[in-house]
């Protein structure tokens, strides 16, 4: 059995189909929407040397996830990417300079969560928040 036939059989078994010669494979879509991205460090309070990376997608329905939860003073790097055709040229995190957001090229914005409260995140008409979740002892 040739490798090409084997790939075609595997794709068919998995519900896909091989692309025709010369065609590019379909672009993967972002993961299903999440209610919130929770902090990874349940024993919060002390700033970390390494920023936690959080992927944020700008879609026609808004930001996904719309709410990112963080511990007080937690350092985060928001990796923001927008879907094709979504009108948003820059992403703005409250208190930070706007970051250019080109289609297909993610913007990375490092932010430190405040002691308490929320920070607004916007991109065009898409809105979201970075919400501080009090740590539990």
- Please count the helical segments: 1
Order of helices and strands: HEEEEEEEEE
CATH fold-level topology: Immunoglobulin-like
Question: Could you describe the largest sheet, including whether it forms a barrel?
Answer: 5 strands, mixed
CA-based gyration radius: 19 Å
Strand content: 35-45%
Structure description:
With 137 residues, this protein is mainly β. It has a single domain, classed as Sandwich (Immunoglobulin-like), CATH 2.60.40.420. Helices cover 8% and strands 35% of the residues. It contains 1 helix and 9 strands; from the N terminus they run H-E-E-E-E-E-E-E-E-E. The chain has a 5-stranded mixed β-sheet, with no helix packed on it. A 4-stranded mixed β-sheet has the order 2-1-4-7, with no helix packed on it. Strand 8 and strand 9 form a beta hairpin. The chain is elongated, with a radius of gyration of 19 Å. The protein starts with a helix and ends in a 5-residue tail after the last strand. The relative contact order is 0.20.
List the helices and strands and how they pair.
Layout: H1 3-13, E1 52-59, E2 62-64, E3 67-70, E4 75-82, E5 90-93, E6 99-100, E7 107-112, E8 118-123, E9 126-132
Parallel strand pairs: 1-4, 3-9
Antiparallel strand pairs: 1-2, 4-7, 5-6, 5-8, 8-9
